[in-house]
């Protein structure tokens, strides 16, 4: 933890004194369960960010994706989030085994609003859920059975400020250094551009 000083915001009251309280309409948009609009959004979303925290206080945010609707809505209080074969690092999943709190941020390409769902989750190999989450003949390793406690939409400001869905604002891939050490080392060893290596790696993922 960084050392605090006179400029540090060290309490909720400090924060509220600085920014004030949210508008009433912001407070009341929160729901305890999924409504028809939230369900429709989830059934259209091909991507989400999974947020968890570990028993030692550390945290993790992991991207998850699949065909639109890969997260299954079981009812207004329950979701099934599958995990398909990947790198086996499992930071977020391990956290859920220790602490069940979960936060989900659903994203749809081209849509500037997002949907936030918070609750608890357990990992399961329930055959019915495994079968329900099958995609193109492939079955997940396991499923996170999510119990919904809090649902609300998030406004467009982050996407508008970032220009995320505006192609003319996107950087040239050739100018972007890969955060992957593996790609960087392979690029250096083979003396080939990182974007070229990245494309090959991306194509290899399509096999799984």
Secondary-structure element order, N to C: HHHEEEEHEEHEHHH
According to CATH, the fold-level topology of the largest domain is Pnp Oxidase, Chain A
Integer average pLDDT: 88
In angstroms, what separates the terminal alpha carbons? Answer: 40 Å
In short:
The protein is of the alpha+beta class and 208 residues long. The protein contains eight helices and seven strands.
Characterise the protein shown here.
The structure is a single chain. The mean pLDDT is 88. The longest helix is centred in the last third of the chain and has 12 residues, at 194-205. The chain has two domains: 12-161, Electron Transport, Fmn-binding Protein, Chain A (Pnp Oxidase, Chain A, Roll); 171-205, no CATH class. Helix 7 packs across helix 8 (194-205). The N and C termini lie far apart (40 Å). The chain has helices spanning 12-19, 24-28, 36-44, 91-98, 127-132, 157-162, 181-190, 194-205; strands at 47-53, 59-65, 72-75, 78-83, 101-107, 114-124, 142-154. With 208 residues, the chain is an alpha+beta fold. It is built from eight helices and seven strands. The chain has a seven-stranded antiparallel beta sheet with strand order 2-1-5-6-7-4-3.
Note the topology.
Blueprint (H helix, E strand, L loop, with lengths): L11 H8 L4 H5 L7 H9 L2 E7 L5 E7 L6 E4 L2 E6 L7 H8 L2 E7 L6 E11 L2 H6 L9 E13 L2 H6 L18 H10 L3 H12 L3
Antiparallel strand pairs: 1-2, 1-5, 3-4, 4-7, 5-6, 6-7
Helix pairs in contact: 7-8
């Amino acid at each position: 933890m960084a050392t605090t000083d006179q400029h540090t915001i060290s309490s909720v009251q400090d924060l509220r004194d600085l920014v004030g309280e949210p508008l009433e309409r912001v407070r009341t948009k929160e729901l305890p369960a999924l409504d028809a609009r939230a369900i429709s959004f989830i059934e259209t979303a091909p991507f989400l960010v999974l947020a968890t925290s570990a028993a030692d206080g550390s945290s993790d945010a992991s991207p998850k994706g699949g065909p639109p609707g890969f997260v299954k809505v079981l009812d207004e209080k329950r979701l099934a989030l599958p995990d398909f074969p990947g790198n086996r690092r499992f930071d977020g999943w391990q956290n859920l085994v220790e602490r069940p709190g979960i936060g989900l941020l659903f994203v749809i390409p081209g849509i500037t609003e997002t949907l936030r769902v918070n609750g608890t989750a357990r990992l399961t190999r329930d055959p019915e859920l495994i079968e329900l989450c099958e995609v193109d003949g492939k079955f997940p390793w396991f499923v996170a059975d999510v119990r919904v406690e809090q649902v609300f939409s998030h406004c467009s400001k982050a996407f508008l400020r970032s220009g995320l869905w505006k192609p003319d604002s996107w950087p040239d891939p050739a100018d972007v250094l890969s955060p992957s050490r593996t790609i960087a080392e392979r690029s250096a060893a083979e003396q080939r551009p990182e974007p070229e290596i990245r494309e090959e790696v991306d194509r290899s993922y399509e096999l799984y």
